[in-house]
Structures are given as C-alpha cells and as structure tokens.
Design goal:
CATH class of the domain at 279-409: Mainly Alpha
Domain U-box: 18-92
Shape: elongated
Distance between the termini: 93 Å
Largest sheet: 3 strands, antiparallel
Pathway: Protein modification; protein ubiquitination
Strand order of the largest sheet: 4-3-5
CATH architecture of the domain at 279-409: Alpha Horseshoe
Strand content: under 5%
Enzyme class: transferase
CATH superfamily of the domain at 279-409: Leucine-rich Repeat Variant
Keywords: Transferase, Ubl conjugation pathway
Pfam family, one: ARM_PUB
Number of strands: 5
C-alpha cells in the first residue's frame, strides 16, 4: 500500500510520488520525520509514539507486546534511507519501493494467523533467495523490518514442532546473520526459548541441530551477544548435546558444526570450566580420533584443547582420557587442513603443559612415539616458535626421565 506525497524537485515543481510502506509511521501513516525504535524492534515517528506512551499505554502499538523497556532509540539507518529517498524524489529507483513492499508482504505472510503452513514455507523460500542476493538497500530493509526477530520468534515460540518449517526458518536466519544486527539473538537466553533450544538440540533433525550449532557459533562474533554466549556456555544440557554431535563422525557436517559451536563457547574464559564438566574434552578427542583416517582434523579442535588444559580440570581430562595423550601426540606432526605447523605448535604446547605436571602423561607420550615426532618436527620447515617449544618438550622429557631413572637406582 502506498500513500501519495508531494516532494519539491530541484526547480520547485511539485511531483506526486508515493511513500513506501517502510517509511510510514504505523500510527499516523505519515512519512517518518524522526524515526525511533522500541525494544520490540518496531519503528515509529517520535511525536506519535511519545503521545502513545504519555497517554499511559505500556504496549507496542503494532505487536501489542508489553514494553519491558519503554526507552526509544533513534533509527539513524532508516533516517538516512528516507533522506536519500527525499533527495532523489521521482528518481528514486522503483525497484527499491517494490523490494520494500515485497519484503513487507512476506513478513505479513509469516506473522499472519490466517497464513497456512504451505504459505509460510513459500514465504521462507523467497526470503532465502532474497538473502542470497547482497544489496545494501535490501540489507537495510531486513534490518528495519526486524526480520531476524520475526524468524527467531517463529522458531522458538510458535512453530518449532513443524520440523520442515524449523529447518527452513533456521536456514533463513543463518543467511541473514551476516546482514543484520545480532541483538535479537538475545531472546534465546530467556525461558521458554532456552528450553526450546535444548529440545531442538535433543530431538530435532540433523539439519536442525547443525543449524543451531552455527547459530551458537555466531554468538561469539559480537559484543551484543556476549552474555548469550555465556548463558549457553554454562548450560549443561546445551553443552552435552553439542558434545554428542561432535561424536557423530559419520555426519561430517554436523560434527564440524559441533566443534565450531564448542570453539565459540570456549572463547569466553567464564565458559571453560562448564565445558570441561560437560564432556567437551571427551567430545573433541573423539572427533579428532574419528577424523584421523580422513586426514581432516581441524585446527579448531586443537584450539579447544589448548584453552581447556589451562584449567587443572582440563589437564586431568586429557590425561585420564584413554586415548587423550596419544591423540595429542599424533597431532605433533600431522597435516591439519593445510595448517600443519600451527597444529604442531599447539599440540607441542599442550604436551608441555600436561607433561610438566603428570608423570603418567610423560610415560604415555613417550610410549606413543613423541620423541620421534619431535625429532622429525625439528628437521622440518616449521617456524622458530614451534621448534623452540619442541626443544623445551624434549628437554623436559629427558630431564624427567633421568630424574626418575636415578630415583630407581
């Protein structure tokens, strides 16, 4: 729907054009002069929404949601788009107006209680196509129409029982993440959304579980979602389900997604103890062991171990795992997704940490062939930092070996 509007041109003639839906205040239906956004993600003209709030209303006029935060935030991006539109006047690209209305119609189809499941699936298919076509104007439209919020609400609050719908909605969400503000993701940290996340990780399809891991991975990429990353990293059930996924080596995409999610949670130091308690070390070692034959063990997996052995519980986890030390030894001189020497450096560093404190780790490392691996590494083209660590580990093993031999004598 358009509303007629007169815009003065350069020669002060008056040209009748139309106001795109996105540029109209939902209350006054007039052009937004000073757009501001509520905590619900809906944008209004400042004068209109201030009148609404001053009348004692504590809800969002469009969604009728209760306002847990009555503050209003200037919407500078939309203000810029409107200014651009006014400057261009009748030269405003007609495709942009069509895009606004098309995206608005798709959003309505998703939110309308009268839309059938088939109609919603069709809308999601179209959104997925549109999100593949990068365009700064389209990106602004996705943001201003609060698409991420809409899709997250559909997944976590309404239609999570329809697996096909949830798969497609999550796929759309992942497409939108690089294009939009990530703040709406914070709705996941509150109940019942967090419980729904756990339920989907437990009982969802493989595709849903994989998508959720990618969603969890994104929480470490922005300061806006740091608290959410902390909440997820301290959820025992979330960690346990991610660990289960890393063990599913026959589902390569899923296990990799699980490792990426775990690495994201591990980026926060406050999550690491919880990750160890949740079985992260067992999961990562199982992943590395299972991927050995495919020669695709990712450096990300070694990075997780490197962070977790900084904790005493993490050291114990590696040392007490039946194949923990042996698995790390195998990484000392192993191609790791074209990052052979980076993996080598991390593996040697991990062994330095655990062999310094645990005699059993030294014995297992020597039994697993660490001395030969280190000698090969020192003759390789690895960097000076890696060679320095390798020499330190050799010196440590030799000195400890000599000490223990002298004690026996």
């Amino acid at each position: 729907m358009y509303v007629n509007f007169l815009v003065p041109s350069m020669n002060e003639a008056r040209i009748e054009i139309t106001i795109p839906h996105l540029f109209r205040c939902p209350i006054s239906l007039d052009l937004l002069e000073d757009p501001v956004t509520l905590c619900t993600g809906q944008t209004y003209d400042r004068s209109s929404i201030e009148k609404w709030l001053s009348a004692g209303n504590l809800t969002c006029p469009v969604t009728m949601q209760k306002l847990h935060d009555p503050s209003i935030v200037p919407n500078h991006t939309l203000r810029h788009l409107i200014d651009q539109w006014l400057q261009l006047g009748h030269q405003f690209h007609p495709g942009n107006s069509a895009t606004i209305d098309y995206l608005t119609a798709l959003k309505h189809a998703l939110q309308s209680p009268n839309s059938t499941l088939d109609h919603k699936l069709q809308a999601l298919d179209k959104i997925q196509v549109l999100s593949n076509e990068y365009c700064s104007f389209k990106r602004s439209c996705f943001n201003q129409l609060s698409y991420l919020t809409v899709l997250l609400e559909l997944v976590f609050q309404r239609n999570s029982q329809y697996m096909e719908f949830t798969e497609l909605a999550l796929s759309c969400i992942l497409k939108l993440l690089p294009l939009v503000n990530l703040d709406p993701l914070n709705m996941i940290k509150v109940e019942p959304n967090l419980s729904t996340l756990v339920l989907l990780l437990e009982k969802g399809t493989t595709k849903i579980k994989t998508s959720l891991c990618h969603l969890i991975e994104s929480t470490s990429t922005s300061t806006q979602t740091q608290e959410l990353c902390h909440v997820l990293g301290n959820s025992r059930k979330v960690i346990e389900e991610i660990v289960k996924l890393t063990r599913e080596i026959h589902e390569e995409d899923s296990s990799k997604a699980g490792i990426k999610a775990m690495a994201a949670l591990c980026s926060l130091q406050s999550n690491r103890e919880s990750l160890v308690r949740g079985g992260a070390i067992d999961g990562v070692i199982a992943y590395m062991s299972g991927c050995e034959k495919k020669n695709v063990v990712g450096p990300m997996a070694m990075g997780i171990i490197e962070k977790l052995v900084m904790l005493e519980s993490g050291k114990v986890g590696v040392v007490e795992h039946p194949s923990g030390v042996e698995t790390v030894v195998k990484m000392v001189f192993r191609v790791c997704n074209n990052q052979e020497y980076w993996c080598s450096e991390v593996a040697v560093g991990v062994l330095l940490v655990i062999c310094r404190d645990y005699g059993v780790a030294r014995e297992e490392a020597i039994g697993a062939g660490i001395l030969t691996q280190l000698l090969f590494l020192l003759q390789s083209q690895c960097g000076n930092k890696t060679k320095t660590k390798a020499r330190m580990l050799l010196k440590l093993l030799r000195s400890k070996w000599n000490d223990e031999s002298n004690k026996k004598l």
